[in-house]
Every structure is written in C-alpha cells, then in structure tokens.
Amino acid sequence: MTINDVSLTHHDGAEAAGLLEELSDAYADSYGVEPGEEKTAAFRRRAEKQFSRPGFALVTARNGGRLVGFVFGYTLPAGDTHWWGGVQPEPTAEFLEETGSRTWVLSEIEVRRAWQAKGVGRTLHDTALGARGEERATLATGPDAAAQPVYESWGWRRVGRIPGDEGDYYSAYDLFVLELPVTR
User: Name one GO molecular function term (predicted).
Assistant: First the structure.
C-alpha cells in the first residue's frame, strides 16, 4: 500500500453530505474508536454544519473504492473574526481582518490507521490547499496533539492559543497558519 495506490477526488458540500457515513467511519478508524462513540458523534455534528459554509471543499482518497482518508474545510466570511476570538498572544488588527477570501480553515484531515505514515495525509493536504485561492490557511489542534510537529514540518506556524467553547473536546486550542499557495 503506497500513495500510488490511492485516487483523489474533489467534492462540494452537497456531495460531502452524501458521504457523511463514509467520512464518519474513516474518522472513527483514524482515531481507533467505534463509529457510534461520542468523538465520532461530535465529528458528525461539526461536519454537517460545515458542508454549507462558503468555500467548503472536500478531497477524498480512495483505494479500491474504499475511503482511506479525507480533508475538508471552508473559507472564513468577511468580517467574521470569531475564529480568532481570544487568541493569545493577541495579534495585530491587520492579522485578524477577514475579507471573505483571505483565510481557508483546514477543518479536518483524517487517514485510516492502516494508511497512516504512507504519504496519504500530506498528499490530501497539498491537494486541498493547492486548489485554494485564499492568502492563507488556518487550523486548530489540541495543545498536546501528536500532529503538531507534523504540521510544523509541512510549513505551518503556531500563532497562538484560544480557549475552547462549552462542550468542545479540548479546553483550549492551538491555532496555526500557513501562507498560500503551498510550495513543497
């Protein structure tokens, strides 16, 4: 199993909604949890809200028809600075400005455990971000997420930490930014 055994497909929000069961199954597998567990249920709730957001895009990776990984995200709307709310250290007003075409949120990037460390995640990442027209991308991770060094090796830089909201998986999140276009 190598990255050469995987086919990539771009999807819009309507197509993503039709793939929710497969996405949830792959998400659960990537974390080694059962599809019905709370972590997967929380993923489903987040995903359903995002499918209709402006700039939503999904890229799937398949092997023999089976979903082995995916990445999706959306564009921050003009004037919406909620994403950056409470970030410390506090950035400049210019950094926080959203134009509706400035920042794409990389919301999820997941790869089934059997396909991890085979280049699928990096390929999904580069394919999704290579198709974007925004100036930058952002993502949020748990403060001790094992993926942080991976993101940093892909060129992401940590810009600060925000408090989690009521009911969030983590009480705080580290925010990262990557200038677009992606260069490798």
Answer: acyltransferase activity
Asked if 74 and 50 count as a contact pair (C-beta separation under 8 A), the reply is yes
Tokens of 94: 């210019």
* pLDDT tens, residue by residue, 157-174: 999 999 988 877 789 999
Distance between CA atoms of residues 109 and 121, nearest Å:
7
Let me know how many helices (H) and strands (E) the chain has, helices first.
6, 7
What's 22's domain CATH number? 3.40.630.30
Contact at 8 Å (CB) between 11 and 60?
yes
Q: For 55-79, how does the pLDDT look when each residue is reduced to its tens digit (9 = 90+)?
A: 999 999 999 999 999 999 999 999 9
Amino acid found at 32: G
> Given phi > 0 = left and psi -120 to 50 = alpha, else beta, which region is 155?
left
- 161, two tokens: 């930490």
Domain containing 59 equals 3-134
